[in-house]
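FORM 12-B: Structure-to-Sequence Request
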């Protein structure tokens, strides 16, 4: 594996996030399941930074915050770069390689973050148990993280050649 530089990590993270976002829109077109609402993530982030509240019930019912959509998109892409950085460290430790299969494995394992952290923080409970359809919520998160992980693995393979 060649040297991986910060710019490559950002390119891979942002690129994988673009794949994630484009796939959500394609999937929405075929299934009518809406893509992620990044305004809610922005509302949560602003509330966390200004009020220190990590877990928020009924966040959709809370008043809208100024710039919440932009903040949500920014957080979404920053988290993607953090995932790419994590993947790079795992490559350096010879745990993962820059390839499809390891990317898929990473994506599948990484789904624990929304299941056990983000969903509870957004008032949806562990594994979305407080949503109307927890199984669908979990399946969507698994699908999206799998696609995202594959995009990261393939993204790093582009730089490895």
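FORM 12-B RESPONSE
SEQUENCE OUT:
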């Amino acid at each position: 594996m060649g040297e991986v530089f910060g710019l490559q990590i950002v390119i891979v993270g942002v690129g994988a996030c673009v794949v994630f976002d484009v796939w959500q829109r394609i999937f929405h077109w075929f299934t009518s399941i809406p893509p992620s609402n990044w305004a809610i993530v922005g509302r949560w982030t602003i509330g966390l930074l200004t009020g220190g509240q990590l877990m928020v019930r009924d966040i959709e019912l809370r008043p809208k915050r100024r710039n919440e959509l932009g903040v949500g998109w920014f957080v979404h892409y920053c988290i993607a770069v953090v995932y790419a950085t994590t993947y790079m460290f795992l490559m350096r430790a010879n745990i993962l390689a820059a390839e499809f299969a390891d990317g898929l494995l990473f994506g599948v394992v990484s789904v624990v973050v929304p299941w056990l952290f983000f969903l509870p923080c957004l008032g949806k409970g562990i594994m979305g148990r407080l949503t109307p359809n927890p199984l669908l919520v979990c399946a969507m998160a698994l699908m999206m993280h799998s696609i995202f992980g594959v995009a990261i693995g393939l993204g790093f393979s582009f730089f490895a050649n």
